[in-house]
Specification:
By secondary structure, the chain is of the alpha/beta class. The chain has 16 helices and 19 strands. It binds flavin-adenine dinucleotide.
Length: 491
């Protein structure tokens, strides 16, 4: 039986572990932290439960397909509820509520801009076609050759790779609030809407067409489900086990060093951040130089707060976006002139609004996220300063006093991303999906310098986000299975 060692235990690592174990490999996972899940771990404090990272459950079809590959369903592991409303967006002079179906969303668009619902339906129809092509065809390609992107469907839509989502949205919608609403979903891909190809409008179908879901108990339930599936398949998971070196002999991987001990393997897959994974190799075996990594566009880092409130809050939903300041200025301060934002947009999540298991009775669990440029200076006083800024705005927009109702507040920022995940510059969501960082133009799944060494996760193919990470694990294991099981048959 061939031995595989997987570094890290985020979504992509756990996904690849499951596929490889199912294919008959002997799989061991080495995770540096004390629990599995990577960026999707959980904070439990005084009866409150917070997802530390992801909170939006989009593209339920991808999660379903993942579990179906193992003869399972999400419902075997967790209860999924569709949120209605999906989310609310606070602007300086209005609030837009996104319902759980197109009819409700169209009604809201009409309220803001008469006649806009017709254009919206046409836009989402096109987005759905793109979704079907992207998710069912392109995203399942391993990013080895540019030819993977050349299909009848993509050739017919080639213009959509050279126009941006910003241009496409602004052609149809004039009201700035509707423009921001439609530009929001591509922020998950990590780049500015004005740098993201309009083909990525498939994210708008994920948003308005497929809806926003919540696994009861939080996103960590998906990690627990995958951990339990991996164990059922025979994967051995070791936490508190940082990998210090990837061992190579004559251009072929031979194992890893962890805790001063060598563990041999026929195949090594790293699901840790790509840049860090390469630093575990001797220099001659690294594929990308430091200057390569510095030149890339990263998805933002984040300043995060996990707050326990001693009362239920008013005028909020499960997911809330605060777009009451200048969207463009904040984007410039993330991507073009990296600095702490002058007037940050932020996101606030209150899972206890719809899921009573997330906070003690009569109390509210609040998660606040400010996207910031990776690599910024991170100090306690900056964190405090930004909490004051957003909590004042939060009180104003939601018309209530909350500051005297805070039981505790924890924070997480650039330094924690570096320390806890070995993240390059403290990025939160990996490498952005711009045109020049798409598919075969992203860091490879397979090492070009070391035989039997692979990489997976949000810095490689297909990109940032939980669903792409699940797919990344499937793609990388597909490459390994194709190569190694084929060889075995020849032997
Ligand atoms: C704040 C935040 C909010 C997000 N919101 C959403 C959302 O709402 N919806 C969504 O779909 N996505 C969201 N994302 C993105 C999503 O969480 C990520 O894309 C995904 O979790 C990345 O998974 P991964 O497999 O690439 O690896 P990671 O989760 O980064 O896991 C890598 C693992 O490798 C481990 N590791 C690192 N170095 C070593 C070493 N030397 N030895 C052993 N282990 C090591 C780390 O500890 C970590 O466990 C969010 C991310 C963040 C941070």
């Amino acid at each position: 039986m061939k031995k595989v060692i997987i570094i890290g235990s985020g979504f992509s690592a756990l996904s690849s572990a499951c596929y490889l174990a199912k294919a008959g490999f002997q799989v061991s996972v080495f995770e540096k932290n004390s629990t599995v899940g990577g960026r999707a771990r959980q904070l439990v404090k005084d009866g409150f439960t917070f997802d530390i990272g992801p909170s939006w459950y989009w593209m339920p079809d991808i999660f379903e397909k993942f579990f179906a590959d193992f003869g399972k369903s999400t419902s075997d592991y967790y209860q999924l509820d569709k949120l209605d409303p999906a989310y609310k967006i606070f602007f300086s002079d209005d609030v837009i509520t996104i319902g759980d179906c197109m009819d409700k969303i169209c009604e809201e668009f009409e309220r803001i801009e008469k006649g806009s619902s017709k254009d919206l339906r046409a836009f989402i129809h096109k987005a759905q076609e793109n979704y079907n092509i992207a998710i069912n065809k392109i995203v399942l390609k391993p990013g080895i050759s540019p030819l993977e992107l050349v299909t009848k469907d993509t050739v017919l839509r080639v213009d959509q790779f050279f126009k941006t989502i910003s241009q496409e949205v602004r052609k149809k919608f004039k009201n700035p609030k509707l423009v921001s609403t439609l530009e929001f979903p591509v922020l998950f891909l990590g780049a500015k809407p004005s740098k993201t190809p309009s083909f990525y409008s498939f994210m708008n179908f994920a948003d308005f067409g497929l809806g926003t879901w919540h696994p009861k108990g939080g996103m960590y339930q998906i990690i627990l489900a995958m951990e339990s599936l991996a164990k059922e398949l025979g994967v051995i998971l070791s936490t508190n086990s940082p990998v210090d070196k990837i061992e190579v002999s004559d251009h072929r991987v031979t194992g890893i060093i962890s805790g001063g001990k060598k563990f041999t393997a026929d195949i090594v897959i790293s699901g840790a951040d790509y840049h860090h994974s390469e630093t575990l190799l001797d220099k001659k075996y690294r594929q990308y130089s430091e200057s390569y990594w510095h030149k890339k566009t990263y998805a933002p880092s984040s300043l995060l707060f996990y707050v326990g409130f001693d009362k239920k809050l008013d005028n909020i939903e499960h997911h809330n976006l605060f777009f009451d300041t200048d969207f463009e200025l904040h984007a410039e301060e993330i991507y073009d002139h990296p600095k702490w934002p002058s007037q940050p947009l932020f996101y606030a999540n209150f899972p206890s609004k719809t899921d009573s298991s997330m906070a003690p009775e009569g109390k509210e669990a609040g998660f606040f996220l400010i996207p910031i440029a990776p690599g910024l200076e991170d100090t306690q006083s900056l964190r405090d300063q930004y909490f004051d800024i957003i909590i004042d705005r939060f009180e104003k927009r939601t018309q209530q006093k909350v500051q005297n109702h805070i039981l505790f507040r924890e924070s997480f920022c650039v330094n924690d991303f570096v320390e806890q995940y070995n993240s390059f510059k403290g990025n939160a969501y990996g490498m952005a999906n711009t045109l020049s960082q798409t598919a075969f133009l992203r860091p490879n799944l397979k090492s070009s310098k070391v035989e039997n060494l692979y990489f997976t996760g949000q810095l490689t193919v297909p990109g940032p986000g939980v669903p792409p990470s699940l797919i990344s694990g499937k793609l990388v294991s597909g490459l390994a299975i194709k190569k190694h099981l084929k060889n075995e048959i020849h032997i």
